[in-house]
Write a structure and sequence with these properties.
The chain is mainly α. The chain has 6 helices and 5 strands. Helix 3 packs antiparallel against helix 4 and helix 5 (69-85) crosses helix 6 (91-103). The relative contact order is 0.21.
Length: 125
C-alpha cells in the first residue's frame, strides 16, 4: 500500500484508526513525491525535532518508489484520462496515482481526488 502525505502525517501522530488499515500489509510504499511533500511540511513545523527522526525511520522501513520511464508513460495516461473526464487533480497526486497504477498498489489517503483516477483504489480511515 502506498502512503499518501496525509497518511504519513496521521501515522506519525499515532492515529489508531489508520493503524488498523496499515496492519493489512507488512511493508508500505512511499513515493519520492510524498517524501518531498512531507519534508517540505517538516521544514515549517514546530514539531520537526520530534517528527524528523520518526519520518527517517519510516523511510528506512518502507519501500521507496521512484519515478522512472514506465511511471512517466502511466502518468501521461492517467493525466489524459482525468482531462477527458474533466476531473483534474493536483499534479503531485497524478504522479502518486501513476505509481499506484504502475505497481498495482492501493493508496492510503483521505484525499478523495484519487477516486477520480481509473485503476486506483483508495483506502481511507
Amino acid at each position: 500500500m502506498i502512503l499518501d502525505t496525509n497518511a504519513v502525517s496521521a501515522l506519525l501522530e499515532g492515529d489508531p484508526a489508520l493503524e488498523v488499515v496499515l496492519a493489512r500489509s507488512a511493508r508500505h510504499e512511499l513515493p519520492v513525491i510524498v517524501i518531498g511533500e512531507y519534508r517540505y511540511g517538516l521544514a515549517r513545523s514546530r514539531l520537526r525535532r520530534r517528527l524528523v527522526p520518526l519520518f527517517d525511520e519510516l523511510i528506512r522501513e518502507s519501500t521507496v518508489l521512484s519515478v522512472g520511464v514506465e511511471t512517466a508513460a502511466v502518468y501521461a495516461k492517467v493525466r489524459e484520462g482525468l482531462r477527458a473526464k474533466g476531473t483534474p487533480i493536483p499534479e503531485n497526486d497524478v504522479w502518486i496515482s501513476a505509481l499506484a497504477v504502475e505497481h498495482g498498489l492501493d493508496i492510503v489517503s483521505r484525499d478523495r481526488d484519487f477516486d477520480h483516477v481509473a485503476g486506483v483504489r483508495r483506502r481511507s480511515w
